From TrEMBL:
<feature type="transmembrane region" description="Helical">
    <location>
        <begin position="140"/>
        <end position="166"/>
    </location>
</feature>
<keyword id="KW-0813">Transport</keyword>
<dbReference type="GO" id="GO:0015871">
    <property type="term" value="P:choline transport"/>
</dbReference>
<feature type="transmembrane region" description="Helical">
    <location>
        <begin position="70"/>
        <end position="89"/>
    </location>
</feature>
<dbReference type="GO" id="GO:0043190">
    <property type="term" value="C:ATP-binding cassette (ABC) transporter complex"/>
</dbReference>
<keyword id="KW-0812">Transmembrane</keyword>
<dbReference type="GO" id="GO:0031460">
    <property type="term" value="P:glycine betaine transport"/>
</dbReference>
<feature type="transmembrane region" description="Helical">
    <location>
        <begin position="46"/>
        <end position="64"/>
    </location>
</feature>
<dbReference type="GO" id="GO:0015226">
    <property type="term" value="F:carnitine transmembrane transporter activity"/>
</dbReference>
<keyword id="KW-1003">Cell membrane</keyword>
<feature type="domain" description="ABC transmembrane type-1">
    <location>
        <begin position="92"/>
        <end position="271"/>
    </location>
</feature>
<dbReference type="InterPro" id="IPR035906">
    <property type="entry name" value="MetI-like_sf"/>
</dbReference>
<feature type="transmembrane region" description="Helical">
    <location>
        <begin position="96"/>
        <end position="120"/>
    </location>
</feature>
<keyword id="KW-0472">Membrane</keyword>
<dbReference type="InterPro" id="IPR000515">
    <property type="entry name" value="MetI-like"/>
</dbReference>
<keyword id="KW-1133">Transmembrane helix</keyword>
<comment type="similarity">
    <text>Belongs to the binding-protein-dependent transport system permease family.</text>
</comment>
């Protein structure tokens, strides 16, 4: 047995910090929660209101634009049609709305932080251990303070998803920018380009495959949080998986699980296709 006189606990400190955060900034978090909830509800309502055939046509057009292959676009449309055919279309739209909001927030946070990390070694030194903690810390641990700040529902599910999913985007954005050829940057400096012109005209375009790989990984990791998000009040496909577990309904859980896999495959194929460099055809 470990000696008691050598033990200590950080639980009281953490609890005091979270309590102070809730007491002092509760109104701020409530405003953020209300804003995000409004966005999610209206986006979900728009997706569910859109006719299924129109949604399939839109996704098919996006898939074709990304892959430039008719067969790939038809396959993606067919997989989504299969989800609707088993009666999970509304659940799919609920999950898609949650995923879209979480992914947009992750992109808005991840890419700027990755750019800053690529430009500052000090920030990178501080940021990387934090990203390691975010990726390895069990999600149920940070669900506790998130629930205290935002309560049950879709909003805490989004924040928990962002915490888990944003690190790959930050890492790959930083990596992509650092791998830009130094000779290219020296040539751009010789032409007198300012830092903004260097970033948006050269660095980001050259790092785009790596950044899109980060978006792809972030989306995949966000999808892996679907079932956990359903435990704190988020609806969607994860809810059916959870109900299947609770009621030992293998068929219901399998249908919802396969629907999540199909959504992951669709998003993965599209984001990977956009991440690949485009080569213009020479006439």
């Amino acid at each position: 047995m470990f000696p008691e006189n050598l033990t200590f606990s950080i639980a009281a400190w953490v609890n005091d910090g979270v309590d102070a955060l809730v007491s002092n900034y509760g109104d701020v978090f409530r405003h953020i929660s209300d804003t995000l909830l409004w966005v999610i509800i209206h986006l979900e309502g728009l997706l569910r209101m859109t006719p299924w055939w129109l949604m399939l046509a839109i996704v098919g057009a996006i898939a074709w634009h990304a892959t430039r292959r008719i067969f790939s676009a038809l396959l993606i449309v067919g997989l989504l049609f299969l989800v609707g055919a088993v009666g999970l279309w509304d659940k799919l739209m609920q999950t898609l709305a949650l995923m879209m909001v979480a992914t947009v927030i992750s992109v808005l946070l991840g890419i700027p932080l990755g750019i800053l990390a690529a430009r500052s070694n000090r920030l990178r030194t501080v940021l990387m251990p934090l990203l390691d903690i975010m990726q390895t810390l069990p999600s149920f641990v940070y669900l506790i303070p998130v629930l205290m700040l935002f309560g049950l529902g879709k909003v805490p599910a989004i924040f928990a998803t962002v915490i888990y999913a944003v690190p790959p985007l930050i890492r790959l954005t930083d990596l992509g920018l650092r791998q830009v050829d130094r000779e290219v940057m020296e040539a751009i400096n010789a032409f007198g380009a300012n830092p903004w012109q260097q970033l948006f005209g050269v660095q980001l375009p050259l790092a785009m495959p790596s950044i899109m790989a980060g978006v792809n990984q972030t989306t995949m990791m966000a999808l892996s949080m679907v079932v956990i998000a359903s435990m704190i009040g988020a609806r969607g496909l994860g809810e059916d998986v959870l109900v299947g577990i609770q009621t030992l309904n293998v068929g219901k859980g399998l249908e919802a699980g396969l629907a999540i896999v199909i959504l992951a495959v669709v998003i993965d194929r599209i984001t990977q296709a956009y991440g690949r460099p485009r080569h213009k055809e020479v006439p």
